[in-house]
Structure formats: structure tokens, C-alpha cells
Automatic annotation (TrEMBL):
<protein>
    <submittedName>
        <fullName>1,2-phenylacetyl-CoA epoxidase subunit A</fullName>
        <ecNumber>1.14.13.149</ecNumber>
    </submittedName>
</protein>
<dbReference type="Pfam" id="PF05138">
    <property type="entry name" value="PaaA_PaaC"/>
</dbReference>
<keyword id="KW-0560">Oxidoreductase</keyword>
<dbReference type="GO" id="GO:0097266">
    <property type="term" value="F:phenylacetyl-CoA 1,2-epoxidase activity"/>
</dbReference>
<dbReference type="GO" id="GO:0010124">
    <property type="term" value="P:phenylacetate catabolic process"/>
</dbReference>
<dbReference type="GO" id="GO:0005829">
    <property type="term" value="C:cytosol"/>
</dbReference>
<dbReference type="InterPro" id="IPR007814">
    <property type="entry name" value="PaaA_PaaC"/>
</dbReference>
<dbReference type="InterPro" id="IPR011881">
    <property type="entry name" value="PaaA"/>
</dbReference>
<dbReference type="InterPro" id="IPR052703">
    <property type="entry name" value="Aromatic_CoA_ox/epox"/>
</dbReference>
<dbReference type="InterPro" id="IPR009078">
    <property type="entry name" value="Ferritin-like_SF"/>
</dbReference>
<dbReference type="InterPro" id="IPR012347">
    <property type="entry name" value="Ferritin-like"/>
</dbReference>
Amino acid sequence: MKNYQQDFDQAMEKDISIEPKDWMPDAYRKTLIRQIGQHAHSEVIGMLPEENWITRAPSLKRKAVLLAKVQDEAGHALYLYSAAETLGADRDDMMDKLIAGRMKYSSIFNYPTLTWADVAAIGWLVDGAAIVNQVALCRTSYGPYARAMVRVCKEESFHQRQGFEAMMQLANGTPEQKQMAQDAVNRFWWPAQMMFGPSDDNSPNSAQSMQWKIKLFSNDALRQKFVDNTVPQVHMLGLTVPDPDLRFNEETGHYESGAINWAEFNDILAGKGPCNHERIEARRKAWEGGKWVRDSAAVYAQKQHVEEAAKVA
Ligand code: FAQ
């Protein structure tokens, strides 16, 4: 008799990706739906703080770039919802759970974008952090998720560069513009680090997800990579890192950061961040407002199906 668990374990050992029709443990499927669903929701909610600036971008060029970026994020959500559907998840159900607060999205999108520099900081720091996490996910064990990440990473790297370039222009501008850039770094530096999740000794899902090769690196390892990549970029801009305890360790070749404010992170996860309510409300309105479009598309698809079936008969 076929031993499904053994085949799965061997695939894990040999780094053979798991595909939708392969047998997989229920808990593996559940964990993937949780993570991919949260990731998809983050892309959708992540459009809101940026969309807020489309009408106020400082030039036509900036507006065109921002529009393209926000559209890319919608595309990422579509790949990710589709990947979750290959595991048997239902898109409407995932959306209902998001709106009811029973599925999470990234903590970072509960902060407001107060100035244009915040939009630049999102492109540079938030997409920068997302890339560090997602490059690792290009080799995650579930095939459809890994393949979606390859394309997402290409687009995110364009986002990161445009954010850095927008930041560079501000940092090299008037003293007021430079101050605006510094204020944005001050606001987004720590929240960007929190995107990687709780510290390793406080991350309930990591051990199992690493055993299943869903996660290839721990939360802290990826956070460290982000800090090592980004501190020199802050300095290159002539700005400062808002961490008085930051120091470079010559022996390890890594930056050592000060303590993260985990109480702030936990508050955000508990729905008590500055924009939690506003973000979910915006999503609820869009979801309810778009119902007639989804219903019409479903009726049209059904009609096409009946007509095709009649032709075959
Ligand atoms: N925010 O045990 P762990 C982007 C939750 S994409 C909210 O360590 P895990 C693109 C976690 O779900 C950004 N919740 O969990 C863009 C779990 O709760 P649960 C999104 C968080 O899954 C840019 C609990 O805490 N990227 O930005 C967060 O092993 C610009 C315990 O944590 C992804 O989703 C958080 N930051 O590791 C778009 C990447 N961290 O579910 C627009 C894929 C943790 O048990 C504009 N996801 N939690 O109730 C992952 O790699 C992982 O899910 C982690 C968390 C690393 C986020």
C-alpha cells in the first residue's frame, strides 16, 4: 500500500516541491492557507496607504509610477489568492474572515502615510523588507506559492528602487524636504522591522513551518538581513537610523539593533493600531460595493457555460 506520509517526507528531504494534487498533511495545507491568505490580504490592504497619495503625487511622473505600483500590488494579491485556492481555500470565505478580523494582514499597513516622504519610505523600506522575506519564499516547498513569489519579487525590486530614488530626491532637496525624509525614516524604521514577525523565541509557527520548508529562514535571521542591507542605504542618503543603540559588530560583520517595541506590535495585531479600523472599513466598503460586479460576472460565466454545453450536445 502507498505510504503517502513517507512520500511527502521524502519530497521534503530532497527539496522536491509539493504540487496541488500531491498528498499533503492537513496541518501543512492549513498553515499554507493561513500564510498565503495573510500575504494576499497584505497586498490588498497595502494598496490603501499608497492609494491615499495617488491624487496628490508631486508630479505626473510620480503619479504614473505610483499608479503602476498600486496596480502591481493588486496583481500580487490575485496570484496569492489563486495559490491559496489551489489548496482548496475559498476566496469569498478568506475575504469574509479578513473583514470579520479572523484573518490577519501585515502590521505595517496599519500606519498612516502622513506625507509624500512616507510613500517613498513605503516603497524603499516596506517593499525592501517584503523582498528580503519573499526572495526566501521563492524556494518555499509549495510549488504554486514559490512560483508566484518569483514574479512578485521582480516587481517588488522595481518598487524598492523607485522608493529609494524618490527618497534620494527628498534627501538631496531643500532642508525642509530632507527633514521630511528623515521624519519618514523615523516613522517607518521600526514598523518595517516588525514586518518579519515576532522574535524567534516567541514565534509559535516557525519550528513547524521550517521543518516543512515553508519558511527557509527564521524571522530574526531575515530581520537581520534587512537591517544589514538597509543601514548603509540610510547613511548613503545622508540620513540617520532612529536607533541610538545601533552598532556595527566588526567581528560578526553584522549590525546590532536596539530593542523592538513588541508591545506596539502586539497592540497592532490586537486591532489597536492607528489605522486598523479605517483599513478594514475601507476593505468592507469595497467588498460590498463590488458585489454586483462579482454577481454579474458569475451570471455571465454561467450563461457562457450553458451555451457551450448546448453547442457540444
Ligand atoms: N503582521 O509564528 P509567527 C508587502 C502573526 S507583503 C501581522 O512568526 P509565521 C508587499 C502570524 O500570522 C507583506 N501579523 O507566524 C507590499 C501569527 O498569527 P496566526 C506581507 C503577523 O506565519 C508592499 C503570529 O503573528 N508579507 O508588504 C506579523 O510563521 C508595499 C505569530 O507569528 C507576508 O505575509 C506581521 N508583521 O511568520 C504591498 C510574507 N508577523 O496566523 C503593498 C509571508 C507575524 O498564527 C505595499 N508571510 N504575524 O494567527 C510570512 O513570511 C510569515 O507569515 C511571517 C510570520 C514571517 C509574516
